[in-house]
Each structure stands twice: as structure tokens, then as C-alpha cells.
Amino acid sequence: MRLQRIVLACLYAALAFCNVKKGPAELRDKYDFIIAGGGTSGLTVADRLSEALPGKTILVVEYGEVEYAAGIYDPPRVFWNESGGLASRITHSGLPSPALNNQTATVLVGQVVGGSSAVNGMFFDRPSRFDFDAWTRAQESPEFDNSPEKWDWNGIYPFFKKSVRFTAPSAVVAAQFGYTWNASHFDNTSRIHASLPPFLWGDINVSQTSWKEMGVRPGQDPASGDKDGIFWVPISQHPITGRRSHSGLGHYLDVAASRPNYDLLVRHQVNRVIYPGGNPASDNVPVVEVLSRDTGRVFNITATAEVIISAGAIYTPGILQRSGIGPANFLTSRKIPVVIDLPGVGSNFQDHSGPRPAVNWRYTKPTDFSPMPDDMGNPAFLADAIAGFNETPARGPYTLAMSNLALFLSLPNMTANYSPILDKVRSLISSGKTISDLYLPPVYGQDGSLIKGYIAQLEALLEFYSNPRAPSLESAFATGFNFPAVLLHPLSRGTVRISSDPLTPILDYRSASNPIDIDLHIVHVKYLRRALQTPTLQNLGAVEVLPGENVQTDEELEAYVRGNTTQSYMHPCCTASMLPKEKGGVVGPELKVHGAKGLRVVDISVLPLLPSAHTSALAYAIGEKVCSPCEKR
Fold this sequence. Notes:
Elements: H1 2-13, E1 20-21, E2 31-36, H2 40-52, E3 58-62, E4 89-93, E5 106-110, H3 129-139, H4 142-145, H5 153-162, E6 165-167, H6 171-177, E7 193-195, H7 204-213, E8 229-232, H8 247-256, E9 262-266, E10 268-274, E11 287-292, E12 298-301, E13 303-309, H9 312-322, E14 325-326, H10 328-333, E15 340-341, E16 354-355, E17 359-363, H11 379-389, E18 405-410, H12 419-431, H13 435-438, H14 448-466, E19 471-477, E20 482-483, E21 486-487, E22 495-497, E23 506-508, H15 516-529, H16 535-539, E24 542-546, H17 554-563, E25 565-566, E26 599-601, H18 616-626
Parallel strand pairs: 1-9, 2-3, 2-13, 3-9, 6-7, 13-26, 14-15
Antiparallel strand pairs: 4-5, 8-18, 10-11, 11-12, 16-25, 17-20, 17-24, 18-19, 19-21, 22-23
Helix pairs in contact: 2-8, 2-18, 3-14, 5-18, 12-14, 15-17
């Protein structure tokens, strides 16, 4: 292991002789394309642009450094749920959420070349095809309807295929665990890898069998856009080495040395963009103002073709707001000259949330699921696990990440009594004319476009919730004694605003501010509770610990949810939404900022609605899709 780390350290140090830049003196006089953010989408765009346009120069500005990014479960950690990882990250806390007993959200953001793909949980699933139907329903307008760029399932599916190289497990491993997949959903031309591990803990079948006993159907492959059922989900991991695969490797390290037109400026942050002529609708391309994290020095860099903001849902709205692009009232209150009044910048903030643990139990009968995480406390078992991780191909516990098995279920497939929830959504649509009616942030009351856009989202979600194939719940299982309940499509909306520190935005999650989210959480918890009555868990003597036998009524479950909810599953999104301007949108179908020439946003902030998935696979696909017409630029 020590030798491996020395080799990796040398490999990363060698980047200093490639295209890594440390300050303005090392940069070119100007660049054709400047990309703000060297994360999942940003490095995908940089790779594809520099490949397709060898005569054009590309600069990526990244506030992190080039570092080795460990997997979510690599040595020297002993237990799979220990915190750790060598790549840098920033931890942000949200404002207290009154609807959840003033609890605060915690969200981690990658501060490293590779961004959050270098620090995330490595769960690599695609959204439901019905997510994109909901997007297109919310986007309905001449601008989107007449655009050749389509964001329905057929419009983005080719870029999911292009964005990852999937390696199937061996026949022996597939038979051992019952893995299923469909290789036709992958082009296998990317340098981003996904695979199914050659090791699982011994109790993996407990959840799978109990869910089947509840009548849930096994699905073959969530990569198809089918997300209702039980699925094996790949992880973003190299199939031979067992190491994390992320954009810093596949879209930078693997290509940087051979691309003389591709530069990376580290430990710097894009502070804002400036239109020198003062007219973003007619000026060609904005100048990029950059801040050094080491010296505090501020300087400008010139782009001649386009500036692409790819700083993620937490930081992208800050760059726009500091540029004078955002809600006019807010910008004026901060003494920032208004360049473009776009109320949607920093609004529509969403994240997956849910009671955790939703359902927790203990066994009252002897069990032997070996191997289990407790076995890592055995020195011989641990030594073999470390040795296996360093073999070629890698084997053993350290080839795992957080989870490979997941349940995705729709509202109609969890309860026959879902109509009252739909009726509440209809009531919001028909009678919701004010922010108090709709449980929205105060900023929504300052511009009618935000309310109009939110109503369009409700109409799309009403159709989504009614669909028996469109998932409302995710429960991803690794090992242990609980089923988490993740709400995939909340109705509550929050905001992201700048503060005096560019790396410390103000996050107002406002989780569960819309009470329908509580109704959905209660349905999810009630459903997962039923698993404890299945033959599998009954034969093991499973006894509920949480919510507990004293929590039975809806009122008691509501109190449980309000006191035990994780507000962020690290999937912040939607703060620069791809919607028409008249619906509070920030970017159009080509991801160009409304009213601004030479400026795009390419990251998870452009989502109109949360997807039925973890977000890294979608972030790669967005980067691939926006670069598909690169030869035209």
C-alpha cells in the first residue's frame, strides 16, 4: 500500500510538468474558452472542447488542487461508513429549517480537480426517463418547443451512453451475487469507468429478498431509464484496480499531457464575469475576473469565444450574482450594479432529503451473515482485505463503495391512498397565487415569473406522482439494520445567496416548508416499515427500533420525520434552472444564460427539477451533450 501511494504521489506531482498553472504569469495572453470550475461537468466540457477543437485554447479555473482522490471505502479505513478520503472538500451548513425543528443541512462540495466526482459516494445511476418528461412539461414554451436541443429521454440518452465505460463482472461474480445489467446501454468509449464490485457483505440478500416478498419487481438495469423496482447499481470505479474513477482522471489526467491547447489553473476561483461594454446582449464575450486563493490577488483573463460557468449548484449562482446577473432587488441591496435581472439565479434550490434512519431494527435470533463489516476488526481478515485491494485485479471488501443495491418505487406502488396527496398538489396549482399559498421563499414574491415557473413544476410533478413507473422513493442498501427513505422529488424550494466570502454562500434549504413533503415522507416510512413483517425479517427475529412501536399514528410519524430528517444527501441542484425566462429560468435549451452573449452554465445547477437518481452520471451526460456540436464553435 505504501509503494502504491508513493507511485500515485509521483504521478500527481508529474502534472506540474504538464498543463497545471499556478498563477497569472504562467497563463497565455488570452484563451478561446474559459471554464469556471474543474469538476464533473467542467472537465468533461474541457476534454471534449480541446479534443474537437485542437486549434482553440481552453483554460479551466479550479479553486482546488490536483490530489489523489481515494474511493469512499479505501484503506486505511476499517469500517465502510467511516469518514475520510484524501481529496479535499468543503463542508457547508444551511440556515435552520423551521419546519424540521430548526435543524440545519450539511452538504459537502469537492475542492479538488475532479470536483464532487472525486469525493462523492460513487453511486452511478441514471435518472428515470419520466424525470425528463417532467422537465419538458415544465419547460413548455416557444423557446424550448422550437429548439433543436431536446432534453427529453431520447435527447439525453445518447450522452449517458457516451459518458461512461461499463465493465461487466465476471460470470462467476455475476452468478454469485445475481447481478443483472444490459450492456447495450453503454457505448464504452469514455475514460470514466463504472463497474459492479467482486465483493458484497453477507447480508446483502436480506433487503433484496424482503423487498421481493413485498411484491417489488426486480429491474434489470437502471441505465435504461426504468427506475421502478429493485436494481443493481454500478459504482464509479475502475474494474481492475478497484480505484475511484472521476473526472480529474478521465477528463484531465488521461488527456492533459497530450493536449497543448488545454491549461488548468489551480487554487484560483472565478469571482465574476464582466461585460466591458456594459451590454451583455450585444458584447461578444465577458472578461473573467479571477481570485487567487493563496495571495488574494484579483486579475482578469480574456476569453474570445465563450465563458462556461461550471462551478456547481452551490457556487455557480454566486458567480452570476457577483457579476450583476440575478434578482435585481437582492443585487441592489448588496450594492451590485444590475447587469441582467434574472430572479431565478439562486432560486429553485433543491436537494434529496429523508428521515434517517427511516426504519431501523435489531435481530433477536442468532444470525451469521459472514463476511460482515465487523470482520474487519479481525487482524487476519483486515490484512487479507488490504492485500486484495492491491492485487491485480483488486478483490475483497475494499472494492466496495457505499451501495450497489437500491429500491426505487412510485407513489401509487407504495400506497393505494395516494389520491389525497395528489389533490393537495392540485389545490396548490388552482389556488396558489401568492408565496404564502405556495410555501415559497420571499424572493418569489418579487417577480411573477418565479411563481409561474413553480406552478409549471407542480403541474409536471402532479403527472409524475400519478405515474406508477415514476419513482418517489429511493432506499439504497449497503449493509446493516436500516432502510433509509430518500424523497426524490420534494415540493419545497430554497435559495442560495452570496456572502462576503466567495466560498461561503448562504444556503437556505427551507426543507419541508411545503407540508406535502411531510405527507410523502410518511408514506415512505410506512411502506418501508412493512418490510419488517416479511417472512425473511420475521424469521430473523427483526424488531423495529425506529421509528419504534410507540410511533403509529400519522401525527406521531410526522413528529418523527420532523425530528429525524437528513436535509441533504449531497445532491444540491437547480439554482440556475433550464427554464424559459418567463418561468424564472436562467438558461435556455443550449444552456446559454438568458440575455447574455458568450456565457453558458454547464453543471447540475441547470436542472429544473431534482432527478430520480444520484447526480454524477447526469453531470457527465450534461457535459457531453452541451459539447456535441463542438465543431460548430
